[in-house]
Amino acid sequence: MTVTDAPAALPATAARTAEFISLTHLNPSTELQHQASRGIDLPYFRRYVRSLEDGGYDYTLLPYASVSADPYVLGGAVAALTENVKPIIAVRPNLGHPLVAAQKLATLDQVSEGRAVVHIISGGSDAEQARHGDYLSKDERYARTEEFISLLRRGWHDTEPFSHDGTYYKIDDFGPGFRPYGDTIPVSIGGSSDAAFEVGGRQADIFSFWGEPLADIAAQIERIHALADAAGRPRQRIWVTFRPIIAETDELAWQKAYRYADRLAANTQAGKAAIQRFLGQESPQNVGAQRALEFASRADVYDRALWTRTAAATGGTGASTALVGSPETVAAAILDYVDLGADLVSIRGYDTLNDAIDYGRYVIPLVKQELAHREQTGQRGTLQADHLGAYGADFPQVAGIA
Question: Is the Cβ–Cβ distance between 156 and 182 less than 8 Å?
Fold first, then answer.
């Protein structure tokens, strides 16, 4: 990427709008400061969700794991506590029949007046899938996902009863099903494996990536859009996830980032046995985690502000790459991804509630201000040219690596 003086014409790939996603946390336990409880701290949960509404977030992900709270129930709570935040329900196809899932999601969409989104998780760990009795291979899981999504949509859209005799599901004379509030419910898929791309290309309305260097994300976006074109489907919206570490200045942010990485590494080492038990092996099986660790092995810093040491510190066990800098630098870095076509940006911190509040106060408004300027003028503002981060000549000194 070349940084030029603003104003500058927008690249053809640039998304014209961007929406923000968080991940809802149930209690104050974080990767930096573990607490013993895995339960729901209701006052904390309420405060967290309301901070998303106050901060201008558009969506929140309700994740799923074999030991987590139920995302459908949490999604209903989010809908009741907010007016605008859209709950994204993580669903594993092995955990229920697709027409039952369609009914639950349509019900949530009705009570939230059209805010439901579903994120399909085919499963990146054989060990985690087995905890709920799923022993299919990875390729079989993705094949099941495709059939699952097809039946979800038929459950929402078919106006006459239908039967189905597939590889994984058999149905006799179902429907019509319970409809969503609007025309449909967006379906999201994520992943970096060939199977994820193949199914996502044919089925996804949204495709999700973890934060990677700009050139790599650009190639991934081009690949998934080409698959959609080949399938004759609308191109997917692109969702990219980051873990920003911000402070008043770039220098203070980098000092904070090093402290965080040290603490994350210590906590990962202390919990190594539990992590390996969860993974079922010493290293992550999913391709996204393997890519994150490979990027981290090559360099700590990429592009304007992408930092991979957090991925190395956590062993690549989840979305963990950071954007480091002042709010202005991090907002500029987010806009770099918007310029590639990402229009759904997940930002969730390591200090969960405080970061969610700070992003809403200091980062999201800057991005929205820049996008409003672009809409009015057709050109970039000055934010990206003024806040260079790692592109700046003084970066080694600022980041303490001189």
Answer: no
Task: Verify that 150 and 253 share a domain, yes or no.
Answer: no
Adjacency order of strands within the sheet including 322-325: 245-246, 322-325, 306-307, 301-302
Domain check: are 65 and 94 in the same one? yes
What pTM was estimated for this model as a whole? 0.94
Amino acid at residue number 309 = R
Q: Tell me how many degrees the CA angle 114-119-122 measures, rounded to the nearest 5.
A: 150
- The whole domain housing 366 covers 19-241+327-379
Say if residue 226 is in the same domain as residue 286.
Answer: no
Q: For residue 108, how many other CB atoms are within 10 A of its CB?
A: 25
Residue 152 covered by a domain? yes
Distance CA 220, CA 62 (A): 25
pLDDT, position 257 = 98
Residue 14 lies in a domain: no
Q: How many other CB atoms are found less than 10 A from the CB of residue 248? A: 10
pLDDT confidence tier of residue 2, bands split at 50, 70 and 90: very low
Q: What is the pLDDT of residues 240-261, one digit of tens each?
A: 999 999 999 999 999 999 999 9
Dump strand ranges (E) for 254-386. 301-302, 306-307, 322-325, 342-347
The string of pLDDT tens digits covering residues 63-119 is 988 778 999 999 999 999 999 999 999 999 988 899 999 999 999 999 999 999 999
Regarding whether 268 and 215 lie in a shared domain, the answer is no
DSSP state of 189: E
Structure tokens at 76: 């209903």
The amino acid occupying position 231 is A
329-347: pLDDT as tens digits: 999 999 999 999 999 999 9
- Ranges assigned E (strand) in 71-151: 86-91, 117-120
Residue 360 DSSP code: I
Q: Distance between CA atoms of 225 and 340, rounded to whole angstroms?
A: 12
